[in-house]
Amino acid sequence: MHHSCWYDKGGVNGNYSCEECQLEKDLKKATKMIKLSNGYCYDMGCAAGAFGFLNGWWWERPLCWTGILRPQDWTITTKSLTMSPIKGNLKIWWPFNLYRNCVQTFHDGVNSGTVNAVGMTNPSLPVWIRDYYPKVQKLGLNVIVNVIPYTVEEAEFMGMLLDDLKDIKGVELNLSCPSCKKTESDPYDLVKALKSNCKHPLGIKLGYSDDFNDNVIVKDCENYIEFVTLINCVKWEQLYPNTPSPLAPYGLTGGVSGAPIRSLARASLAAYKASGLKVPVVSCGGIESEGEAYSRFVMGANAIQIGVKIKNDPIGAQKMFDSIVSNIRK
Ligand SMILES: Cc1cc2nc3c(=O)[nH]c(=O)nc-3n(C[C@H](O)[C@H](O)[C@H](O)COP(=O)(O)O)c2cc1C
User: Are 156 and 197 in contact (CB under 8 A)?
Assistant: First the structure.
Protein backbone atom coordinates (compact mmCIF):
# COMPACT_ATOMS: atom_id res chain seq x y z
CA MET A 1 0.00 0.00 0.00
CA HIS A 2 1.46 3.34 -1.00
CA HIS A 3 0.58 5.86 1.60
CA SER A 4 2.35 9.04 0.65
CA CYS A 5 2.45 9.25 -3.14
CA TRP A 6 0.29 11.38 -5.41
CA TYR A 7 -1.72 8.40 -6.60
CA ASP A 8 -3.20 7.53 -3.20
CA LYS A 9 -3.78 11.08 -2.20
CA GLY A 10 -5.26 12.17 -5.49
CA GLY A 11 -2.43 14.53 -6.19
CA VAL A 12 -0.82 16.26 -3.29
CA ASN A 13 1.98 18.68 -4.01
CA GLY A 14 5.35 17.63 -2.73
CA ASN A 15 4.46 13.98 -2.22
CA TYR A 16 5.69 12.77 -5.55
CA SER A 17 8.38 10.57 -4.07
CA CYS A 18 7.07 7.12 -3.31
CA GLU A 19 9.77 4.81 -4.67
CA GLU A 20 7.67 1.64 -4.52
CA CYS A 21 4.71 3.06 -6.34
CA GLN A 22 4.19 1.15 -9.56
CA LEU A 23 2.23 4.01 -11.02
CA GLU A 24 5.07 6.39 -10.43
CA LYS A 25 7.32 4.01 -12.34
CA ASP A 26 4.73 3.67 -15.08
CA LEU A 27 4.48 7.44 -15.31
CA LYS A 28 8.19 7.66 -15.95
CA LYS A 29 7.79 5.24 -18.85
CA ALA A 30 4.72 6.94 -20.34
CA THR A 31 5.03 9.18 -23.40
CA LYS A 32 3.86 12.45 -21.94
CA MET A 33 4.01 14.70 -24.96
CA ILE A 34 2.91 14.97 -28.57
CA LYS A 35 5.49 16.31 -30.95
CA LEU A 36 3.46 17.97 -33.69
CA SER A 37 4.72 18.10 -37.27
CA ASN A 38 5.63 21.80 -36.83
CA GLY A 39 7.94 20.84 -33.95
CA TYR A 40 5.65 22.11 -31.18
CA CYS A 41 5.56 19.90 -28.08
CA TYR A 42 2.05 19.57 -26.69
CA ASP A 43 1.60 18.13 -23.21
CA MET A 44 -0.72 20.24 -21.04
CA GLY A 45 -3.50 22.36 -22.34
CA CYS A 46 -6.64 24.15 -21.34
CA ALA A 47 -9.79 22.61 -22.82
CA ALA A 48 -11.77 24.64 -25.35
CA GLY A 49 -13.76 27.31 -23.55
CA ALA A 50 -11.73 27.35 -20.33
CA PHE A 51 -9.82 30.51 -21.32
CA GLY A 52 -12.64 31.85 -23.49
CA PHE A 53 -11.58 32.83 -27.00
CA LEU A 54 -7.95 33.34 -26.06
CA ASN A 55 -6.23 34.25 -22.80
CA GLY A 56 -9.04 34.26 -20.29
CA TRP A 57 -12.56 35.62 -19.94
CA TRP A 58 -12.64 39.26 -18.93
CA TRP A 59 -13.66 38.43 -15.37
CA GLU A 60 -10.51 36.27 -15.13
CA ARG A 61 -8.28 39.19 -16.12
CA PRO A 62 -7.40 40.36 -12.59
CA LEU A 63 -6.03 36.88 -11.90
CA CYS A 64 -4.02 37.06 -15.13
CA TRP A 65 -2.71 40.57 -14.44
CA THR A 66 -1.51 39.51 -11.01
CA GLY A 67 0.16 36.42 -12.49
CA ILE A 68 -1.93 34.03 -10.40
CA LEU A 69 -3.36 32.52 -13.58
CA ARG A 70 -0.91 32.42 -16.48
CA PRO A 71 -2.54 31.47 -19.81
CA GLN A 72 0.81 32.11 -21.50
CA ASP A 73 2.16 28.93 -19.83
CA TRP A 74 -0.59 26.69 -21.21
CA THR A 75 -1.34 25.28 -24.63
CA ILE A 76 -4.54 27.25 -25.10
CA THR A 77 -7.38 25.74 -27.10
CA THR A 78 -9.81 28.47 -28.06
CA LYS A 79 -13.53 28.22 -27.53
CA SER A 80 -15.11 26.85 -30.72
CA LEU A 81 -15.36 29.23 -33.67
CA THR A 82 -17.75 28.95 -36.60
CA MET A 83 -17.74 30.68 -40.00
CA SER A 84 -20.59 33.01 -39.04
CA PRO A 85 -21.08 34.60 -35.64
CA ILE A 86 -23.44 32.79 -33.28
CA LYS A 87 -25.17 34.58 -30.45
CA GLY A 88 -25.88 31.45 -28.41
CA ASN A 89 -26.92 31.72 -24.79
CA LEU A 90 -23.81 33.25 -23.21
CA LYS A 91 -24.14 36.88 -22.15
CA ILE A 92 -20.44 37.63 -22.27
CA TRP A 93 -20.80 41.08 -20.77
CA TRP A 94 -22.67 40.00 -17.68
CA PRO A 95 -21.05 37.02 -15.95
CA PHE A 96 -23.82 36.67 -13.37
CA ASN A 97 -26.23 35.96 -16.21
CA LEU A 98 -23.73 33.43 -17.45
CA TYR A 99 -24.23 31.43 -14.30
CA ARG A 100 -27.95 31.98 -14.08
CA ASN A 101 -28.84 31.30 -17.67
CA CYS A 102 -26.56 28.74 -19.21
CA VAL A 103 -23.77 27.57 -16.91
CA GLN A 104 -24.46 26.09 -13.49
CA THR A 105 -22.66 23.97 -10.97
CA PHE A 106 -24.58 21.12 -9.35
CA HIS A 107 -24.12 18.14 -7.05
CA ASP A 108 -25.50 14.77 -8.07
CA GLY A 109 -25.20 13.14 -4.66
CA VAL A 110 -21.72 11.83 -5.40
CA ASN A 111 -19.88 14.45 -7.45
CA SER A 112 -19.94 18.16 -8.14
CA GLY A 113 -20.12 19.04 -11.80
CA THR A 114 -20.86 21.87 -14.19
CA VAL A 115 -23.58 21.86 -16.80
CA ASN A 116 -23.47 24.37 -19.65
CA ALA A 117 -25.65 25.21 -22.61
CA VAL A 118 -23.58 28.06 -23.96
CA GLY A 119 -24.75 26.96 -27.38
CA MET A 120 -21.84 28.12 -29.48
CA THR A 121 -21.68 31.81 -28.60
CA ASN A 122 -18.78 33.07 -30.74
CA PRO A 123 -17.76 36.05 -32.86
CA SER A 124 -16.85 33.86 -35.93
CA LEU A 125 -13.44 32.77 -37.16
CA PRO A 126 -12.89 35.82 -39.41
CA VAL A 127 -13.57 38.21 -36.51
CA TRP A 128 -11.35 36.13 -34.20
CA ILE A 129 -8.54 36.47 -36.74
CA ARG A 130 -9.03 40.23 -36.87
CA ASP A 131 -9.47 40.88 -33.14
CA TYR A 132 -7.72 38.08 -31.25
CA TYR A 133 -4.97 36.72 -33.50
CA PRO A 134 -2.81 39.89 -33.18
CA LYS A 135 -2.71 39.18 -29.42
CA VAL A 136 -1.48 35.66 -30.12
CA GLN A 137 1.46 37.23 -31.92
CA LYS A 138 2.01 40.08 -29.49
CA LEU A 139 1.92 37.94 -26.37
CA GLY A 140 3.59 34.88 -27.94
CA LEU A 141 0.75 32.58 -26.86
CA ASN A 142 0.65 28.88 -27.76
CA VAL A 143 -2.73 28.51 -29.38
CA ILE A 144 -4.73 25.71 -30.94
CA VAL A 145 -7.77 27.11 -32.74
CA ASN A 146 -10.92 25.04 -32.22
CA VAL A 147 -13.36 25.27 -35.13
CA ILE A 148 -16.73 23.89 -36.19
CA PRO A 149 -17.36 23.87 -39.94
CA TYR A 150 -20.91 22.84 -40.82
CA THR A 151 -20.25 22.04 -44.48
CA VAL A 152 -17.36 20.89 -46.63
CA GLU A 153 -17.21 24.34 -48.25
CA GLU A 154 -16.92 25.96 -44.84
CA ALA A 155 -14.19 23.50 -43.88
CA GLU A 156 -12.23 24.36 -47.03
CA PHE A 157 -12.59 28.08 -46.42
CA MET A 158 -11.68 27.81 -42.75
CA GLY A 159 -8.62 25.81 -43.78
CA MET A 160 -7.53 28.64 -46.07
CA LEU A 161 -8.03 31.29 -43.38
CA LEU A 162 -6.20 29.26 -40.75
CA ASP A 163 -3.34 28.45 -43.09
CA ASP A 164 -2.35 32.12 -43.15
CA LEU A 165 -1.94 32.28 -39.36
CA LYS A 166 1.71 31.41 -39.11
CA ASP A 167 1.84 31.79 -35.31
CA ILE A 168 -0.75 29.22 -34.27
CA LYS A 169 0.35 25.77 -33.09
CA GLY A 170 -2.51 23.73 -34.46
CA VAL A 171 -6.21 23.34 -35.20
CA GLU A 172 -8.76 21.25 -33.31
CA LEU A 173 -11.88 20.30 -35.22
CA ASN A 174 -14.81 19.99 -32.82
CA LEU A 175 -16.92 17.06 -34.01
CA SER A 176 -18.75 16.67 -30.75
CA CYS A 177 -20.35 19.75 -29.20
CA PRO A 178 -23.42 18.48 -27.35
CA SER A 179 -25.26 21.79 -27.50
CA CYS A 180 -24.88 22.78 -31.13
CA LYS A 181 -26.61 21.72 -34.30
CA LYS A 182 -25.14 18.61 -35.87
CA THR A 183 -22.77 19.18 -38.75
CA GLU A 184 -24.44 18.31 -42.02
CA SER A 185 -21.40 16.58 -43.47
CA ASP A 186 -19.50 13.41 -42.90
CA PRO A 187 -16.67 13.98 -40.38
CA TYR A 188 -14.16 12.46 -42.78
CA ASP A 189 -15.12 14.93 -45.53
CA LEU A 190 -14.77 17.86 -43.12
CA VAL A 191 -11.35 16.72 -41.91
CA LYS A 192 -10.10 16.12 -45.44
CA ALA A 193 -11.44 19.45 -46.71
CA LEU A 194 -9.93 21.45 -43.86
CA LYS A 195 -6.57 19.71 -44.01
CA SER A 196 -6.32 20.00 -47.79
CA ASN A 197 -6.05 23.80 -47.41
CA CYS A 198 -4.16 24.03 -44.16
CA LYS A 199 -0.64 22.97 -43.23
CA HIS A 200 -1.13 23.30 -39.48
CA PRO A 201 -1.26 20.15 -37.35
CA LEU A 202 -4.89 19.05 -37.11
CA GLY A 203 -6.69 17.19 -34.34
CA ILE A 204 -10.30 16.15 -33.83
CA LYS A 205 -12.33 16.41 -30.65
CA LEU A 206 -14.79 13.63 -29.99
CA GLY A 207 -17.54 13.05 -27.47
CA TYR A 208 -18.39 10.05 -25.33
CA SER A 209 -20.39 7.38 -27.07
CA ASP A 210 -21.61 4.19 -25.47
CA ASP A 211 -20.28 1.90 -28.18
CA PHE A 212 -17.11 3.87 -29.01
CA ASN A 213 -18.09 3.98 -32.67
CA ASP A 214 -16.17 7.23 -32.81
CA ASN A 215 -12.98 5.25 -33.08
CA VAL A 216 -14.10 4.51 -36.63
CA ILE A 217 -13.83 8.24 -37.36
CA VAL A 218 -10.24 8.24 -36.10
CA LYS A 219 -9.41 5.24 -38.29
CA ASP A 220 -10.89 6.98 -41.34
CA CYS A 221 -9.02 10.21 -40.67
CA GLU A 222 -5.70 8.89 -39.40
CA ASN A 223 -3.75 10.12 -42.41
CA TYR A 224 -4.90 13.70 -41.85
CA ILE A 225 -4.84 14.14 -38.09
CA GLU A 226 -2.05 14.38 -35.51
CA PHE A 227 -4.11 14.07 -32.34
CA VAL A 228 -7.53 13.10 -31.08
CA THR A 229 -9.05 14.81 -28.05
CA LEU A 230 -11.34 12.69 -25.84
CA ILE A 231 -13.89 13.80 -24.52
CA ASN A 232 -16.20 16.77 -24.85
CA CYS A 233 -19.02 17.49 -22.36
CA VAL A 234 -21.60 14.72 -22.02
CA LYS A 235 -25.27 15.49 -22.65
CA TRP A 236 -27.19 15.93 -19.39
CA GLU A 237 -29.89 13.47 -20.45
CA GLN A 238 -27.30 10.81 -21.30
CA LEU A 239 -25.91 10.99 -17.73
CA TYR A 240 -29.10 11.68 -15.79
CA PRO A 241 -32.03 10.44 -17.89
CA ASN A 242 -34.48 10.67 -14.98
CA THR A 243 -33.49 14.03 -13.50
CA PRO A 244 -34.33 17.43 -14.97
CA SER A 245 -31.32 19.60 -15.77
CA PRO A 246 -30.63 22.59 -13.48
CA LEU A 247 -30.97 24.59 -16.69
CA ALA A 248 -34.52 23.32 -17.33
CA PRO A 249 -36.10 26.53 -15.92
CA TYR A 250 -34.46 28.37 -18.83
CA GLY A 251 -35.63 25.84 -21.39
CA LEU A 252 -32.14 24.32 -21.72
CA THR A 253 -30.53 20.97 -20.85
CA GLY A 254 -26.80 21.33 -21.59
CA GLY A 255 -23.63 19.25 -21.41
CA VAL A 256 -21.90 18.09 -18.24
CA SER A 257 -18.24 18.68 -17.39
CA GLY A 258 -16.07 17.88 -14.39
CA ALA A 259 -16.13 15.00 -11.92
CA PRO A 260 -19.41 13.41 -13.13
CA ILE A 261 -17.84 12.63 -16.53
CA ARG A 262 -14.49 11.44 -15.17
CA SER A 263 -15.31 7.74 -15.43
CA LEU A 264 -16.62 8.20 -18.99
CA ALA A 265 -13.46 10.07 -20.02
CA ARG A 266 -11.39 7.25 -18.57
CA ALA A 267 -13.54 4.62 -20.29
CA SER A 268 -13.17 6.44 -23.64
CA LEU A 269 -9.42 6.62 -23.22
CA ALA A 270 -9.21 2.93 -22.28
CA ALA A 271 -11.37 1.93 -25.27
CA TYR A 272 -9.32 4.10 -27.57
CA LYS A 273 -6.06 2.57 -26.38
CA ALA A 274 -7.55 -0.94 -26.64
CA SER A 275 -8.54 -0.24 -30.26
CA GLY A 276 -4.88 -0.17 -31.26
CA LEU A 277 -5.22 3.15 -33.08
CA LYS A 278 -1.94 5.01 -33.20
CA VAL A 279 -2.99 8.66 -33.45
CA PRO A 280 -1.76 10.38 -30.24
CA VAL A 281 -4.52 11.05 -27.75
CA VAL A 282 -5.29 14.09 -25.59
CA SER A 283 -7.36 13.10 -22.56
CA CYS A 284 -9.93 15.57 -21.27
CA GLY A 285 -12.85 15.36 -18.87
CA GLY A 286 -12.89 15.47 -15.10
CA ILE A 287 -9.17 16.07 -14.60
CA GLU A 288 -9.22 18.08 -11.38
CA SER A 289 -6.21 16.71 -9.47
CA GLU A 290 -2.60 15.91 -10.15
CA GLY A 291 -3.24 12.25 -9.44
CA GLU A 292 -5.96 12.12 -12.09
CA ALA A 293 -3.66 13.80 -14.60
CA TYR A 294 -0.86 11.31 -13.97
CA SER A 295 -3.28 8.40 -14.14
CA ARG A 296 -4.36 9.52 -17.62
CA PHE A 297 -0.75 9.58 -18.80
CA VAL A 298 -0.24 6.12 -17.33
CA MET A 299 -3.39 4.95 -19.16
CA GLY A 300 -1.80 6.08 -22.42
CA ALA A 301 -2.76 9.71 -22.88
CA ASN A 302 -0.01 11.68 -24.64
CA ALA A 303 -1.31 15.05 -23.49
CA ILE A 304 -4.13 16.29 -21.25
CA GLN A 305 -6.54 19.20 -21.16
CA ILE A 306 -8.04 20.85 -18.08
CA GLY A 307 -11.48 22.41 -18.41
CA VAL A 308 -13.85 23.55 -15.66
CA LYS A 309 -11.18 23.25 -12.98
CA ILE A 310 -9.84 26.52 -14.43
CA LYS A 311 -13.23 28.18 -14.09
CA ASN A 312 -14.13 26.81 -10.66
CA ASP A 313 -10.68 26.96 -9.02
CA PRO A 314 -8.29 29.09 -11.12
CA ILE A 315 -5.64 29.34 -8.42
CA GLY A 316 -5.67 25.59 -7.83
CA ALA A 317 -5.62 24.95 -11.59
CA GLN A 318 -2.50 27.05 -12.11
CA LYS A 319 -0.77 25.39 -9.13
CA MET A 320 -1.70 22.00 -10.50
CA PHE A 321 -0.37 22.99 -13.92
CA ASP A 322 2.96 24.12 -12.45
CA SER A 323 3.42 20.96 -10.45
CA ILE A 324 2.46 18.62 -13.30
CA VAL A 325 4.80 20.24 -15.82
CA SER A 326 7.65 20.18 -13.34
CA ASN A 327 7.11 16.41 -13.07
CA ILE A 328 6.41 15.44 -16.65
CA ARG A 329 9.00 17.64 -18.35
CA LYS A 330 11.95 16.50 -16.28
C1 LIG B 1 -18.60 26.81 -20.24
C2 LIG B 1 -17.98 25.77 -21.14
C3 LIG B 1 -17.79 26.07 -22.48
C4 LIG B 1 -17.22 25.11 -23.34
N5 LIG B 1 -17.05 25.43 -24.65
C6 LIG B 1 -16.51 24.49 -25.48
C7 LIG B 1 -16.30 24.82 -26.85
O8 LIG B 1 -16.58 25.93 -27.30
N9 LIG B 1 -15.78 23.86 -27.65
C10 LIG B 1 -15.44 22.60 -27.18
O11 LIG B 1 -14.94 21.76 -27.96
N12 LIG B 1 -15.61 22.28 -25.88
C13 LIG B 1 -16.14 23.19 -25.04
N14 LIG B 1 -16.32 22.87 -23.71
C15 LIG B 1 -15.95 21.52 -23.26
C16 LIG B 1 -14.57 21.47 -22.63
O17 LIG B 1 -13.60 21.87 -23.56
C18 LIG B 1 -14.24 20.05 -22.11
O19 LIG B 1 -14.21 19.15 -23.19
C20 LIG B 1 -15.23 19.56 -21.07
O21 LIG B 1 -15.59 20.59 -20.18
C22 LIG B 1 -14.67 18.37 -20.28
O23 LIG B 1 -13.49 18.71 -19.57
P24 LIG B 1 -13.52 19.13 -17.99
O25 LIG B 1 -14.30 18.08 -17.28
O26 LIG B 1 -12.08 19.20 -17.59
O27 LIG B 1 -14.19 20.46 -17.95
C28 LIG B 1 -16.86 23.82 -22.84
C29 LIG B 1 -17.05 23.53 -21.48
C30 LIG B 1 -17.61 24.48 -20.62
C31 LIG B 1 -17.81 24.13 -19.17
Answer: yes
